[in-house]
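Bug report

Summary: structure tokens for Cytochrome P450 differ between web form and batch submission.
Environment: batch mode, default settings.
Steps: 1) Submit the sequence below via batch. 2) Compare with the web form result.

Sequence submitted:
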Amino acid sequence: MADAGRHQSQGHLTKQPRSPVLHSPILQVVLSTSLHTVTPGPPNPRFRELKRLFHTFIGPRACDAKDLQTVEEEESIKLLDKLLDTPHEFMAHTRDSTAANRNDQISLVKIVQDAMDGFSLASEPGWWVDSFPLLRHLPWAPFLSAAKWMRHDLELLYKVPFDYVKQERRKGTSKRSFISTFLDERQGEETPEDEDIINAAAASLYSGGAETTVASLDSYFLAMTLFPHIQHKAQSTLDTYLHSLPPTNQKFPAISDRPHLPYLEALMYEILRWNPSVPLGLPHVATQDDEYRGYTIRKGTVVWANIWSILQDEEVFPNPTGFRPERYLDEHGHIAKGSKQVLAVKTAFGFGRRICPGLYLAENSVFLAIAMFLFSLDITPHGDGPPEVEYDGFISHPRPFKCKIRPRSPEVAQLIRDTVQTLNKQIDYYQATSMFQARL
């Protein structure tokens, strides 16, 4: 097992990465179900179909679509409403907000959390069976019971959302989603192989995005608690921009404002860098003998790209423990798109063919949430003093901490309340109309 930990060298290794599960015995057990057919990494038809689905639904063009951006913006406003009601539960609210599933009728948030907790535990280095694969053939091996429990949680993640969407489609109350779009493509003629692929894709899309986005949003609250001058500067930048706009119906910041708010985009990049949500990434494997900084890497060696180390490299990010959005700006205050800092921070999403397919959606979601928070909320330290910077987990979240969250003004609080009330009325009307049409 090797660890690649410098930005300048990370692109040289694992030229043709393969699926990590083939080289992790405990993950083989966790993923060896009829619902998740373990296949080699690219190139293979299953992998190409998954990439096509991701590109179609959450690729750059799809993420620019107004209907998708509208959903993200509406969900962000609902998150603000929850933060006004019970601000001390902000970590629970950020997690719930990623479901975008009204009232979470299928307990999807819990299903995802259980499945990702198990997958994260199985992915962590240190399992004896990963070093001694023959142990997996011992029926009394202690890791087997843990792996079967993890596998059960993963099966729920695969089956429940798909079954729920099919049920809603039969009732005529289904809304556009990743799964429903795929089923529309197949026009009722999907095969078991199709269902296997869409289950895998939907589970990967939701679980990966949910956990990593939550981690980034929680990091935002921690950073603003510790660095209030950054919050004040970002708020001033946002206020100046919004006040410069001609009178329109737009009251909240939107994803489409991103090109005009480089400081907020830089703030997003620094959130991704400061404490990356997946600090070790996913394991790759060397497909041929290689050499790295004087070390020989044999074919078949599992390689972990140490993303945390790359994003803490002092040669690229001076004073890496500091929080400085200015790292990504040029002398004119614009995003320095070709700079080594902007290029390096993209490693937060992984590498190569297996780079996170949801990176465009993730950037949109995190940017929008940051803009909404800055527009609506003031975050200050709790009376107990500033929190410690402590993170845990394979998908790395801040440990629970306290901060004060208040609306920036009574007017903005009322705007949030009124908007959510209007959105809820629209939802009630849509559901009633859909149910009526389904009966015709």
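Above is the batch result. After comparison, the two runs are identical; trailing whitespace caused the diff. The mean pLDDT is 77. The domain at 2-439 is CATH 1.10.630.10 (Cytochrome p450).
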